[in-house]
């Protein structure tokens, strides 16, 4: 091999190493948790690829398809609480009160968008938003392929979730049950969670960072709630909802990694 060819080969190898190592270095330097000015705690979710949906679930959970989340993001460790809502909005619309560490509920999609607008303005950023439906399921699964983040055995759900069998007909303060493998609490149960997407049936094609359709009549919600049977709390379960408020519907937020 000629010296010129050797130099060119070394240069190509060096550039390849940069392509591989720079994203890893950025990931390694990003804090694994973040707490904002009103006490909302966030967990860093890594980029990755997963199989979205369930072949054994309801019809709108099929077909199972490959989804890539191309960038890490922060996701709320807990559902947004009544105290955090009160701090930004000056009111508490929730039915189940008495402990402001319960998740806020009776908020519909546009209410949540106003909360996000105010939170971004308070912190001088444009970093907060709802998760996409794909981001939500990716984080809920936390690297698992089972019905729940802890496995397929629904009899274990009570260790991780407030649902119909143990919630006593009400919400409960966030973070009292076991977290999923990525340190997120109440991804199963307590309250359903708004996501950003308009609701649409799945396609079979592999996709990267799907955002959902540009318009629609119903939004997606995820996670199940205090009044639901176990099957509605599965990681892949999804439900469509029009614009209304109810005492089983809340949310958690994404914070974009700077």
From TrEMBL:
<dbReference type="InterPro" id="IPR051043">
    <property type="entry name" value="Sulfatase_Mod_Factor_Kinase"/>
</dbReference>
<dbReference type="InterPro" id="IPR016187">
    <property type="entry name" value="CTDL_fold"/>
</dbReference>
<dbReference type="Pfam" id="PF03781">
    <property type="entry name" value="FGE-sulfatase"/>
</dbReference>
<dbReference type="InterPro" id="IPR005532">
    <property type="entry name" value="SUMF_dom"/>
</dbReference>
<feature type="domain" description="Sulfatase-modifying factor enzyme-like">
    <location>
        <begin position="41"/>
        <end position="255"/>
    </location>
</feature>
<protein>
    <recommendedName>
        <fullName>Sulfatase-modifying factor enzyme-like domain-containing protein</fullName>
    </recommendedName>
</protein>
<feature type="signal peptide">
    <location>
        <begin position="1"/>
        <end position="28"/>
    </location>
</feature>
<dbReference type="GO" id="GO:0120147">
    <property type="term" value="F:formylglycine-generating oxidase activity"/>
</dbReference>
<keyword id="KW-0732">Signal</keyword>
<dbReference type="InterPro" id="IPR042095">
    <property type="entry name" value="SUMF_sf"/>
</dbReference>
């Amino acid at each position: 091999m000629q010296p010129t060819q050797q130099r060119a080969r070394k240069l190509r190898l060096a550039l390849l190493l940069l392509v591989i190592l720079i994203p890893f270095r950025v990931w390694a330097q990003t804090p694994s948790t973040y707490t904002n000015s009103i006490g909302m705690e966030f967990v860093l979710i890594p980029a990755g690829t997963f199989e979205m949906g369930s072949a054994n679930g309801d019809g709108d959970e099929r077909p199972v398809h490959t989804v890539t989340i191309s960038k890490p993001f922060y996701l709320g460790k807990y559902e947004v609480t009544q105290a955090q809502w009160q701090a930004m909005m000056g009111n508490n619309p929730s039915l189940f009160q008495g402990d402001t560490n319960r998740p806020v509920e009776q908020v519909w999609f546009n209410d949540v968008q106003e909360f996000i607008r105010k939170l971004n303005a308070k912190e001088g950023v444009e970093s907060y938003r709802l998760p996409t439906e794909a981001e939500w399921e990716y984080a809920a699964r936390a690297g698992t392929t089972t019905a729940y983040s802890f496995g397929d055995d629904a009899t274990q759900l009570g260790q991780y979730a407030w649902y119909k069998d143990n919630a006593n007909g009400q919400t409960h303060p966030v973070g009292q049950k076991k977290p999923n493998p990525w340190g997120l609490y109440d991804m199963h149960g307590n309250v359903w969670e708004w996501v950003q997407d308009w609701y649409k049936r799945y396609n079979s094609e592999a996709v990267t960072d799907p955002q959902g359709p540009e318009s629609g009549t119903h939004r997606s919600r995820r996670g199940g709630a205090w009044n639901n049977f176990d099957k509605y709390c599965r990681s892949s379960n999804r439900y469509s909802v029009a614009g209304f408020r109810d005492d089983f519907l809340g949310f958690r937020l994404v914070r974009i990694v700077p």
